[in-house]
Amino acid sequence: MNPGGFDYEGWLFRAGVHVTGYVRESSENRRLAESDAGYLLQSLRQTLRDRINHAVTDPSVAGMIVALVIGDRSGLSREQWDLFSHTGTNHLMAISGLHIGIVAGLVFFLFRWLWSRSSRLCLYWPAPQAAAVAAMLVALFYAALAGFAIPTQRALIMLAVVMGGILLRRQQRASHILSLALLLVVVIDPQAVMSAGFWLSFSAVAIILYGLSGRIHSKGLWRKWGQVQWVVAVGLAPLLLAWGMQVSLFAPLVNMIAVPLFSLFIVPMALLSSLMLLVSEGVAGWMLWPLVWVLERVISLLDLVATQAYAVWDQGGISTWTWFPAAMGTLLLLAPAGLPGRWLGGIFLLPLLLIRPHAPTAGVLWFTLLDVGQGLSAVIQTQRHTLVFDTGARFSDNFDAGSAVVVPFLRQAGISHIDRLILSNADNDHAGGASKLVEKMAVYEILSGESDSVPLDHVQPCTNQEEWQWDGITFRFLYPTVNSQNKGNNASCVLLVENAAGRILLAADIEKKVESWLLNNMPEQLAVDIIQVPHHGSKTSSTLDFVTAVSPDYALISAGYRNRYRFPRPEIVQRWQAVDAVLLNTAEQGAIRYRLHPVEGILKPESYRLDAKRYWHLD
């Protein structure tokens, strides 16, 4: 739970997931039974996925085809998602309203044309109504292939409203259709309002209706299509920023080509060739060849666009009050060209673009211990500088705390670069997220207690010879020494941060040996107001003499919820409580923030889990 971070518990709640777990690797694992008829649909989806992955040798292309056919996006790498995000094409990789609409629309027009070729069939049933039923059945089948994911359910409801009007032979205004679909979605799935996809999908349709209805249409198909892309890009930009997402500046141009390509060729061909794999792999191979060739070219072109300068607009740290003028400005900009004062829309957008988040004033220190699970990461902000101490762990190729926690926190704070990144040691739970952090954000200087073991360039060692000042705040390394030969936990950088209000000690993973050295060589530096408890509350640290010497007002533990090491250990908790320290744990508090003001002193800590608490969050 961190400012700017992804609300994982909220996502689980929306998805109806009440318990999570995993299967451990073990030679004792056995399949209990084959799936029965109740899992026929899931068996079909798995068969399709396996055959696509076998038939397509390029894993990046295979992952795209699987995502388009059965909605399984696990085969898409983090790099691919970044590519789609930077080019504004990530909506093409999620089976939702666009894809259901593509398939249903193609079936509707094709079936209506075929039905109307027979006068006898038309006497029994009008072609539009027969086509509407066919379109709904095919859309239902496609949604089933996608596992009836929530976006496909919303798309089916919207499609049912449209096709229902055709079956009942009732002409409806587009705004009425949209409103009825919105009502039905909320009635059937009230939790949909918690999803960004819900707001973005309905807003996109509403924006198109507002931006194009009641106007003299442009001549030429491509000019009309380009106008649609312009309207969607301008209309959705404030909404995307409100949800903390990036805005691709090339999205209108890219989607102007990509959407028709996916609609008319890629999606239909992916479905047909994948279903053909169930019948004849030889025929399917011939059908897959042009599809793979096109997708490879699409990836290359998207990569070319994404590498361009200023491809992405990332407006972090937006004040809430700026949303109202931004909405008014967007409506004015998309209004008919003859409306007087339409140019004022640009003025109304200026607060969104120019107002920056609050920052510390001179002499004031902001300290945030982030919630990165079983690991460590802290951010220190002064008036003009930012220091990041550790980056949390890397959990997999597609998830690490650096990009999932640290970067979103910095962006919501309006921070565009890191002046100093300190990786206390090279262990995964402290430095695992560093690589992705450095990729996504400018870092001017990197220091570490194990500079030779960190897989980054230009990493300098931290030593207790170094002290510096930023904006009236003093920083000093207490450890390691210049000639220290320690490795692992005892190689950790120990950082003391001080202003007129108080002192903070970041002790990383130091153990008894280093604690004893500090007691013997720097006892006067250990009396602090706030300490990050060494090694997450392990028994190998926090000796009685060290705890007594520090005697802080606040002892902070960065640990994972119910972690396998059972940190913090009960005896360590009691030891810190015995010196009257207030013990706070990120597993219970989420991100913990302090403001150290030279006049007002150390303000009461802020717990993000408590401040941002919702009814679906754990107690």
SSE layout:
Layout (H helix, E strand, L loop, with lengths): L7 H8 L24 H16 L3 H12 L7 H10 L9 H20 L2 H6 L2 H19 L4 H18 L6 H15 L7 H17 L8 H22 L4 E2 L2 H26 L4 H26 L5 E2 L9 H11 L10 H11 L10 E5 L8 E4 L4 E4 L4 E3 L2 E2 H12 L4 E2 L1 E4 L4 H4 L2 H7 L1 E2 L2 E3 L10 E3 L5 E4 L2 E7 L14 E6 L2 E5 L5 H10 L8 E3 L11 H7 L3 E4 L12 H8 L4 E4 H4 L2 E6 L3 E2 L3 E2 H4 L8
Parallel strand pairs: 5-9, 8-10, 9-11, 11-12, 16-17, 17-18, 18-19
Antiparallel strand pairs: 1-2, 3-4, 3-20, 4-5, 6-7, 13-14, 14-15, 15-16, 20-21, 20-22
Helix pairs in contact: 2-3, 4-13, 5-7, 5-8, 5-12, 7-8, 8-9, 9-10, 10-11, 11-12, 11-14, 12-13, 14-15, 16-18
**Beta-strand percentage range:** 5-15%
Q: Please summarize the sheet with the most strands.
A: 9 strands, mixed
Number of helices: 23
The structural domain count equals: 3
Q: Could you name the ranges where pLDDT drops below 50 across 5 or more consecutive residues? A: none
Structural class: alpha/beta
- CATH first level of the largest domain: Alpha Beta
* Helicity level: 40-55%
